Amino acid sequence: MGNGRKQLGSWGERVAALHLEAKGYEIVARNWRCARGEIDLVLQAGGVLVFTEVKTRRGRAFGAPEQGLTPQKAQKLHQLGQYYLYENDLDEVEWRIDLVAVELDSKGKLLRCEHLENVVWGWE
Questions:
Q1: What is the SS3 assignment for 73?
Q2: How far apart are CA 55 and CA 1, in angstroms?
Q3: What is the pLDDT of residues 76-87, one digit of tens each?
Q4: Sign of torsion, CA 100 35 62 111?
């Protein structure tokens, strides 16, 4: 089922990207990867760089999408954000980490696409 999960995740990322673009965010990168991991979406909004994790769930068998953001994943996202800034020579830019929760019912109908701002902080 690995492929179905990957497809679901890719679909959720497209939904999240469209949702954020409609809110005025500009997409800088999708699925930015480095040796340490991946950031789903890198966006720009009003001079702020926004690293965005997208969690997509079909049904609640594994909890709400937000519950997929574990403390370990949050810490890793913070490290990836810092690495992105370093790699792109962006030392004086304001940034944050957001989460987009995409939830579908068991038939695949979109129930919600919720953007939560500044979900990770203070890992210094």
A1: helix
A2: 17
A3: 999 999 999 999
A4: positive
Q: How many CB atoms lie within 10 A of CB 62?
A: 10
Whole-prediction pTM value? 0.90
Q: Chain-centre distance of CA 62, in angstroms? A: 18
Query: What are the domain boundaries of the chain?
Result: 2-120
DSSP 8-state symbol, 56: E
Say if residue 72 is exposed, middle or buried (CB neighbours under 10 Å; 0-12, 13-18, 19+).
Answer: exposed
Contact 15, 110 (CB under 8 A): yes
pLDDT 10s digits, 47-83: 999 999 999 999 877 788 998 888 999 999 999 999 9
The answer to whether 121 and 71 are in contact (CB under 8 A) is no
- Where does 2-120 sit in CATH, by number? 3.40.1350.10
